[in-house]
Write a structure and sequence with these properties.
Length: 233
């Protein structure tokens, strides 16, 4: 069962839409800048409905890797995600996949990579925090890794990140986007930001087992696939 119609829901649909015992909860609050209590309440009510289904044996919820970063500013969104993660894990059927910045097809301007592309292509001035890091992963790899873990539940913890093996400095991400677009951005470099450490050991094991090529060269391949027609290899 797939709950949701967005990027994550669509990626998991081929493998899981007809599974009557597994609920992939990929709906609710997705914008990290959300502050509306009503939006948080709607997602919580949705989880209540799913958890009340006696026929469901496995419940999958998508949390945020930022919840696990003590240096990250604790926004209403992150407080909400942490609380929902706790609720899911309190149910023995629950499993949480924490996600970083997910990249895929779509025009959502709130995503980091779509923001960078728009600013670089328009020439509009933007700020780059020199000490900030972000972690990017392909939505196709999220589905592959998540499906593999769900097929081998005893081999992995009930909460784990699905992320690249290292987080990347924002200036490096901007320069990678400039490379695939073959355009120079107009930005100021500010001495701000914090690191974004993620424990990816379990994800690395899953990636090795199912052939997802995380690590060296991953960022350029990822941006090349979605932001230039010919790709970058």
């Amino acid at each position: 069962m797939i709950i949701g119609r967005g990027l994550v829901a669509t990626a998991f649909t081929p493998e899981w839409q007809y599974d009557p015992f597994t609920a992939i909860v990929a709906a609710g609050v997705s914008h990290s800048g959300e502050t509306d209590p009503a939006a948080f309440a709607r997602e919580e009510a949705l989880l209540d409905e799913v958890m009340a289904m006696p026929s469901i044996r496995h419940i999958v919820y998508f949390g945020s890797c930022a919840v696990g970063n003590p240096a990250e500013r604790q926004t209403p969104y992150l407080h909400h995600k942490a609380r929902m993660e706790g609720r899911i894990l309190a149910d023995p059927r629950g499993r949480v996949f924490r996600l970083p910045q997910v990249v895929g097809e779509g025009g959502n301007p709130h995503t980091l990579t779509n923001f960078l592309r728009a600013r670089i292509e328009s020439g509009e001035l933007f700020d780059v925090w020199a000490r900030a890091e972000r972690n990017l992963i392909d939505i196709r790899d999220v589905a592959t890794l998540g499906t593999y873990v769900l097929r081998h539940p005893d081999d992995y913890p009930r909460m784990m990140p699905l992320a690249d093996v290292r987080s990347t400095n924002m200036l490096e991400i901007v320069r990678a986007m400039e490379a695939v677009l073959q355009r120079q951005g107009n930005y100021r470099i500010l001495d701000q930001g914090v690191s974004f450490p993620i424990d990816t050991r379990d994800c690395e094991r899953a990636a090795a087992a199912c052939g997802v090529p995380l690590g060296e060269g991953y960022l350029l391949r990822l941006l090349g696939h979605y932001y230039v027609a010919t790709g970058v290899v």
